[in-house]
Specification:
It is a single chain. Helix 7 packs across helix 9. The radius of gyration is 23 Å and the shape is elongated. Strand 3 and strand 4 form a beta hairpin. It folds into two domains: about 150 residues, no CATH class; about 160 residues, no CATH class. By secondary structure, it is of the alpha+beta class. It has a four-stranded mixed beta sheet with strand order 3-4-6-5. Strands 1-2 form a two-stranded antiparallel ribbon. It is about 65% helix and about 5% strand. The longest helix has about 35 residues.
Length: about 325
């Protein structure tokens, strides 16, 4: 019963997370930290159904072991504790299907968009000041996106740059290059999978929408290192006024997201240290809670040394990945292939 109560508390905690990060107290935090909070929430929602089923299996198995002996072995409702464990494991595995199927679909979509050599030949290869290659395709359709999973590639159409000054066009290119450089496409696969599986739940919708919005703000901040704030703002206004903007993707063309990005760019300095520290502390505490729960769930009752090693095995790669995706690390310029 203790396990079920703990699972319920974790569920409530991560249901309230998007409300906390969008509160007036924390909404001015750094976009990278807010994106990390949303990513943690999505990861938790990806694991919660399976973990809750696992906890239920433990409770039922314990009840079966403490039941009455109807035949050789202790059983409950005609099933012994081992049968309940096997049945619970099957149910937990089935709960992964709603998550894995959208992830596979999203992965195949990215793979389907992989640029063949002929398409690359038709495109113009542009090297940005950040050292990232962007492909500009000769089409009037306004598109800007990343394709590929293991080796993502930034793609911008010629139509998306029409009417923009050279500085504004450079801002668009640097923004898309930042998405590719920071590996945002891979994280969006996770977001799409969780949204496809549990998108009817309001907390999941808030997390996915917020995560996409914050990744756009992170890419804007990366672009600011190489272009002026005015050029980036004018490019955003041009995208918002374009009637063809929806072809560029919901995260880019969504008026609410564009207004948010403009608001973050026009604020000075754009984020506030107390809100960022508070959000980072909240993310660290929830990440430790989630990692500890996973370690206990996997190892049962680990020793203190085992718990520390398990937390390190989960926490260090996750911290590095999150830090890199939010632009925390500087990247060496990439050369043309």
């Amino acid at each position: 019963m203790t396990l079920l109560i703990a699972a319920a508390l974790i569920l409530v905690t991560f249901s309230l997370l998007p409300m906390a990060t969008r509160s007036r107290l924390l909404e001015t935090a750094s976009p990278g930290v807010l994106a990390a909070a949303d990513l943690l929430g999505l990861f938790a929602w990806a694991l919660l159904p399976t973990a809750a089923t696992g906890c239920l299996v433990v409770v039922i198995s314990a009840a079966a072991a403490g039941g009455h002996a109807h035949y050789a072995g202790v059983c409950w409702l005609g099933l012994n504790s081992r049968d309940w464990t096997v049945l619970g494991g099957v149910l937990a595995s089935l709960l992964l299907a709603p998550l894995l199927i959208p992830m596979i679909v999203e992965y195949r979509r990215l793979r389907a968009g992989h640029l063949r050599s002929l398409a690359r030949f038709c495109a113009k290869q542009v090297m940005t000041e950040s050292g990232q290659q962007v492909l500009v395709f000769p089409t009037d359709v306004k598109v800007a996106f990343s394709v590929g999973f293991l080796a993502p590639q930034a793609v911008v159409s010629r139509g998306a740059l029409v009417g923009l000054s050279p500085e504004q066009a450079q801002a668009v290119l640097e923004h898309e290059a930042a998405h590719t450089r920071l590996g945002h496409a891979r994280f969006l696969v996770l977001a799409a999978a969780v949204e496809g599986a549990y998108g009817r739940l309001p907390p999941v919708r808030w997390l996915t929408s917020g995560f996409r919005r914050e990744l756009e703000a992170v890419a804007d901040r990366q672009a600011l290192r190489f272009v002026g704030r005015g050029a980036l703002l004018r490019a955003l206004l041009a995208m918002g006024e374009s009637r063809s903007a929806p072809a560029m993707g919901s995260a880019v063309s969504d008026p609410e997201h564009i207004r948010y990005r403009i608001r973050r760019l026009t604020s000075d300095p754009g984020w506030h240290l107390p809100a960022t520290v508070g959000t980072a502390t909240l993310v660290a505490a929830l990440a430790a809670l989630l990692a500890s729960s996973l370690c206990i769930f996997i190892a049962g009752q680990p020793t203190p040394v085992g718990l520390v090693l398990c937390l390190a095995a989960i926490g260090l790669p996750a911290t590095w990945t999150g830090w890199r995706s939010t632009g925390g690390l500087k990247h060496r310029p990439q050369t043309l292939s």
